[in-house]
């Protein structure tokens, strides 16, 4: 179907699609994961992720590399390894293991400019000699991230709101549930209609400056008012609100996101 090659990649370990299939991430487990490749003297491309877009003709276009940004020591084996998507709606966010580099959460919605938004790093296993350990894998599952540390056991993490991720986005991510998850199978992420989902899109429109502050405040007030209603009164309020938001979206500087918000409110009206 399509192929990619890169002389900077040593060991093509795994691939991850975005939820809509428009992008792919390939991880390079340089040296089988036993070498320190995250030092300040190492090339950025070594042991990193290579990000591609998938176009309509089923070809891959390289966009950039991503590597956890915190330089590691000579004592820490560190390359890209196992991870999974984090179901923040409307964004492409991944949590990934980096052996003794720890855990990195990064956004690659714009594959040309990926950026880290959270991390965890235990430091070297031994401060005197090189050890072989670190985070083997980290996967999002029903609201938590489970990390298998080769030498030190299991870590369980929960996202906290920050300048990069809002509480509404975290709450919406937690509505995505699986009875059983095999990350390599990449089950489709589906967000059920919820007020946290709609509020996530409002937060994203604030971040992208898609609407003026007064408009965002008005939308938030309407969502709060709707949430206090019940039955047919809530349905009617939300249906009217959705229609108005679709009209308003035409004047937004982030029209696709504004229409997504409107559609999410319309879905709420159907509950």
Key descriptive features of the protein:
271 residues, alpha+beta, 2 domains, four-stranded antiparallel sheet, 23% strand, elongated
Shape: elongated
The number of helices is 5
Q: Order of strands across the widest beta sheet?
A: 1-2-3-4
Task: Indicate the proportion of strand residues.
Answer: 15-25%
Number of strands: 11
- Derived structural class: alpha+beta
The radius of gyration over CA amounts to: 21 Å
As a percent range, the share of helical residues equals 25-40%
Largest sheet: 4 strands, antiparallel
How many individual domains? 2
Report how far apart the termini are.
Answer: 41 Å
Q: Calculate the mean pLDDT score and round it.
A: 96
* SSE topology string: EEEEEEEEEEEHHHHH
Query: Uncertain runs with pLDDT below 50, 5 residues or more?
Result: none
Q: What can you tell me about this protein's structure?
A:
- There is one protein chain.
- This protein has 271 residues and is α+β, with helices and mostly antiparallel strands.
- The chain folds into two domains: 174 residues; 75 residues, no CATH class.
- It is 26% helix and 23% strand.
- The strands form three sheets. The protein has a four-stranded antiparallel β-sheet, with no helix packed on it. A four-stranded antiparallel β-sheet has the order 5-6-7-8, with no helix packed on it.
- Strand 6 and strand 7 form a beta hairpin.
- Helix 2 packs antiparallel against helix 3 and helix 4 packs antiparallel against helix 5.
- The mean pLDDT is 96.
